[in-house]
Amino acid sequence: MKQIAQSIRDRFLKLGIDVPVEDIESRLDELITKFKVPSNEAQRSVTNYFLKKYSIPKNEFYTRQAEPQLTKIMNISENGQWANLKAKVVQLWENTHESISQVGLLGDETGIIKFTEWKNAELPELEQGESYLFRSVVIGEYNGRFQVQLNKNTSIEKLDEVIEVGGGDFTPAARESELRNISDLSGGQWATVKGKVVQLWENSHESIEQAGLIGDPTGVIKFTNWASSELPDMEEGKNYMLKNVVVNEWGGKIQIQLNRSSSIEELDEDIKVGSSTSTYFGAMVDIQTGSGLIKRCPECKRALVKGACPEHGKVKGEYDLRIKAVLDSGTSTQDILINRELTEELAGLSLDTAIAMAADALDPGVVLDTIKHELVGRYYTVTGHKLDRYILVDSITPKTSLDKEMLDEMLSLNETFTKLEVQ
Amino acid sequence: MPGFFREAARRVFAQELKDSNLTSRDESDQYAPQYVLTPTGAKVNRIFLVGTLIEKEDIGTDSEYWRGRVSDPTGSFLVYAGQYQPEAAQFLAECELPAFVAVVGKTSTYTTDDGNVLTSIRPESIQQVDELTRNLWVLDTAKQTLERIRAIEAEEDQNSKLAKEHYSTDTGYYREIVKKALESLKERE
Questions:
Q1: Contacts of residue A417 in chain B, CB cutoff 8 Å?
Q2: pLDDT, mean of residues A37-43
Q3: Does B172 lie at the interface with A, CB-CB under 8 angstroms?
Q4: Domain A73-158 carries which CATH code?
Q5: Which of A294, A401, A409, B168 is the most buried (most CB within 10 A)?
Q6: What's the pLDDT band for A423 if we cut at 50, 70, 90?
């Protein structure tokens, strides 16, 4: 509080008026301590009181104040505080809301802070990399972080000098996230990833440019490249360096997302995708609900539940065939997902036939029954990319012959043991 | 998924399952799975078997309750399916004998008045399969049984030790059973 009192006194001193510090302090104390007024409000109120007392026109006082009172970004410490800043626009972000005209980062030699310019502020457009003098901005707090807000009372003046930004240049190219192994990624971080695009998925939403799987020697992860990222398309089987991607968790699964500050660089090297193709051998012991003839949302391709998409509500679904099954080796189990093409092949059943069957029986369950009948209890070897607890099956082969060599080997091995025991 | 995992379906020959009488269950939790520990140390909750369905009978009084007998090279399994296993019950009702069938199910035990433990199977699924699948299962089960026998002889893990302690398992006897099963495959050539 002493500090505030002193700063008020200093401001009046500049006008040639010596206000007793005790007077200021006692007024501040009354407001802050007794009447629980926020300190910035108290400061303003006390200042106004003395302006009135000494008959100083408010306008004069504040315009005079505006020039010298520059705040450094590092010193921003209070929600609701007004400040004047000299800063460089280090980054402009995509606008997320119609009432916002510009949003991004400002920096000076002491630090970097987010700024938001409201549409109704009607200010000239800021350019990335340029430096400005911002008068009368308001400090706001959001999610525990301070940010600068430019509103109607704010004025902007472009500077010729270039403001140095502390902590280096924060343009996306320079601020590069650490290169990480895919298996080491965890949610809520930025990262740079080197990998091979192992699978591209059918685009499920107009706001998504591309989605699929990318893998490196340590694993495979889902990626989403948002249309708004304005990044080039990637091709299946090619290798890329994805810089500054966001890693997050959705539904318990880690995935990466490319946005406007990310970049894609094609690489010449061929990255070995480790453990991306898993192979599993076992008996098919279960085919789960949601298999067989299903309907998918035409928008997002998700399977419909009772004719409704969890995202888009009631929609006219598109038919598809798929199998969610469990393979079992006797000591472990593996969930697998089989797509339409392989399902058709395995069950000897085309999608059209399946639709006709279901229509005939007035029950899509008959398709599932047929698939179960064909598959459950048989031994299969599957290969595919491992994703979460599933293997997304690329190939599935039924075991078609008895391994005679293994049989003989086991018999002779068993024989030796039995003989040993007899001896 | 924490807190949930799917029980692997064990591979055990009929003779070995018949010899089993050690059950375990976490008593504090009524939903805890029940296990049968077999003489070679297989801790069985779910089981997968392929064999020949040789008998079936509706033993239900009010509603249908089917009992099927599935044989393998060493003996036979009893499979019971009622109203809570509608697909399996329907299969048993409709199928013709004999037939190669693949059964996935849970073991359940019943202790008779004179202390014998009878182990039967409550099927989750029964499907008709071909002879090849049956032979593959015999080979698979032989292999896994041999691995368990080896573990018992080496007293490798908890289950092996426990099984040996309880049954004083004669591994030679089970090797003999495996041999019999494997030889039955040879004869079919």
A1: 175
A2: 78
A3: yes
A4: 2.40.50.140
A5: A294
A6: very low
pLDDT averaged over every residue in chain B: 89
The CA-based angle A147-A149-A155, given to 5 degrees, is 135
Q: Dump pLDDT digits (tens) for A333-353.
A: 999 999 999 999 999 999 999
Residue B103's domain spans which residues?
A: 9-187
Could you tell me the two tokens for A347?
Answer: 């069950």
B113 is a domain residue: yes
Query: Would you call A418 an interface residue with chain B, using a CB distance cutoff of 8 Å?
Result: yes
Locate the chain B residue with the closest alpha carbon to A373: B127
Cross-strand pairs, A140: A147
The helix (H) or strand (E) run that includes residue A418 is: helix A404-422
Does any CB of chain B come closer than 8 Å to the CB of residue A379?
Answer: yes
Chain B residue whose CA is closest to A330 = B10
Decide: A19 and A56 in contact? Cβ < 8 Å.
no
Is residue A3 packed enough to be buried (19+ CB in 10 Å), middle (13-18) or exposed (0-12)? exposed
Per-residue pLDDT, B24: 82
Q: Under an 8 A CB cutoff, do A407 and B186 touch?
A: yes
Asked whether the beta carbons of residue A283 and residue B124 sit closer than 8 angstroms, the reply is no
**Does ipTM surpass 0.85 in this model?**
yes
Tell whether B4 is covered by a domain: no
A vs B: CB pairs below 8 A: 101
pLDDT above 60: residue A173? no
Residues A215 and A219: their CA atoms lie apart, in Å, by 5
- Report the residue of chain A nearest B177, measured CA to CA: A414
Tell me the CATH number at B152. Answer: 2.40.50.140
Q: How confident is the model at residue A144 (pLDDT cuts 50, 70, 90)?
A: low
What would the pLDDT profile of A56-103 be if each residue is shown by its tens digit? 777 767 655 545 578 888 777 777 778 888 898 988 888 778 888 888
Q: Classify residue B1: in a domain, yes or no.
A: no
Q: In the CATH scheme, what is the homologous superfamily, with its name and number, of domain A179-267?
A: Nucleic acid-binding proteins (2.40.50.140)
Distance, in Å, from the CA atom of A60 to the CA atom of A44, rounded to the nearest integer, reads 15
Pick the CATH number of A277-398 from 3.40.50.20, 2.40.50.140, 3.40.50.800, 1.20.1090.10: 2.40.50.140
Structural domain includes residue B81:
yes
